[in-house]
């Protein structure tokens, strides 16, 4: 368990509050995201909402030199899409909005896929399967389970549907720092790896590709895309290992 920070009861309460606020950000986005909106407009509205309405800190802003409060990953973008004034959502797009929020010293991290109204059926299927894969991983979380159980469950759902799992990026421990131990792989073998114990908090955030798992980073140093230009999807939640199972700290109202 080297490097893993186990959260106290008081710290868990603060993690819950951070997660609750982050769900409100997605509720806010739900009310107005649509074709014709630029990804920079999404970024700026979310920035103002987190700071002015929630009195919280957008944790991604300034992290590793990043100049925005969220990642907006459209279509073939796997992750770390950079908001842009010139990138306007089209009616056929799918887009992942990935947001981190810090309140009272603790960070929550979540992402959601938004499917525009004219997205084609294969895009919708990829988004739905990726969501199922994330939840398959989450359902493995309980004291005594192994990290490999999570990855194996995610991988099985993705590959059964004919998709591939991106291996270069993974989930991670989270708390006072955005990235803590352990790493949470989205592939692997059941009953292998670290044993889960109560008080652990981490993200599960599979990135699933329609075609090949191969990716590349664009010249901006951030945007990661599929090499074959086929679609990619991602969902993410922050979870807590409880005494008898799992609590999703970023659970949204439509999921409850």
From TrEMBL:
InterPro entries: Creatinase/aminopeptidase-like, Pept_M24, Pept_M24_MAP, Pept_M24A_MAP1. CDD domains: MetAP1. A divalent metal cation 2 binds at residues 109, 172, 205, 236. Substrate binds at residues 80, 179. It catalyses: Release of N-terminal amino acids, preferentially methionine, from peptides and arylamides. GO terms for molecular function: initiator methionyl aminopeptidase activity; metal ion binding; metalloaminopeptidase activity. Keywords: Aminopeptidase, Hydrolase, Metal-binding, Protease. GO terms for biological process: proteolysis. Coiled coil: none annotated. It is an enzyme of class 3 (hydrolase). Binds 2 divalent metal cations per subunit. Has a high-affinity and a low affinity metal-binding site. The true nature of the physiological cofactor is under debate. The enzyme is active with cobalt, zinc, manganese or divalent iron ions. Most likely, methionine aminopeptidases function as mononuclear Fe(2+)-metalloproteases under physiological conditions, and the catalytically relevant metal-binding site has been assigned to the histidine-containing high-affinity site. It comes from the Bacteria. Its EC number is 3.4.11.18. GO terms for cellular component: cytosol. The keyword Iron does not apply. A divalent metal cation 1 binds at residues 98, 109, 236. Residues 14-243 form the Peptidase M24 domain. Its cofactor is Co(2+); Zn(2+); Mn(2+); Fe(2+). Belongs to the peptidase M24A family. Methionine aminopeptidase type 1 subfamily. Monomer. Removes the N-terminal methionine from nascent proteins. The N-terminal methionine is often cleaved when the second residue in the primary sequence is small and uncharged (Met-Ala-, Cys, Gly, Pro, Ser, Thr, or Val). Requires deformylation of the N(alpha)-formylated initiator methionine before it can be hydrolyzed. This is Methionine aminopeptidase. It comes from Pseudoalteromonas maricaloris. The gene is map.
């Amino acid at each position: 368990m080297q490097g893993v920070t186990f959260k106290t009861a008081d710290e868990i309460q603060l993690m819950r509050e951070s997660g609750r606020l982050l769900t409100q950000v997605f509720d806010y986005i739900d009310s107005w995201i649509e074709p014709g909106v630029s990804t920079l407009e999404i970024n700026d509205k979310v920035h103002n909402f987190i700071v002015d309405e929630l009195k919280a800190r957008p944790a991604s802003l300034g992290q590793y030199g990043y100049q925005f409060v969220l990642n907006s990953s459209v279509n073939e973008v796997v992750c770390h899409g950079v908001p842009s004034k010139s990138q306007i959502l089209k009616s056929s797009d799918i887009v992942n909005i990935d947001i981190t929020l810090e309140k009272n010293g603790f960070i929550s991290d979540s992402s959601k896929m938004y499917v525009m109204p004219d997205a084609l059926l294969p895009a919708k299927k990829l988004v739905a399967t990726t969501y199922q894969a994330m939840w398959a991983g989450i359902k493995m979380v309980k004291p005594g389970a192994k990290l490999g159980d999570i990855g194996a469950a995610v991988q099985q759902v993705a590959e059964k549907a004919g998709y591939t799992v991106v291996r270069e990026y993974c989930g991670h421990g989270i708390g006072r720092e955005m990235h803590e131990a352990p790493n949470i792989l989205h592939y692997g073998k059941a009953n292998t790896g670290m044993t889960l114990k109560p008080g652990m908090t981490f993200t599960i955030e599979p990135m699933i590709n329609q075609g090949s798992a191969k990716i590349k980073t664009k010249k901006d140093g951030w945007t990661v895309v599929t090499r074959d230009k086929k679609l990619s999807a991602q969902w993410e939640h922050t979870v807590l290992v409880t005494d008898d199972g799992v609590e999703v700290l970023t659970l949204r109202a439509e999921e409850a």
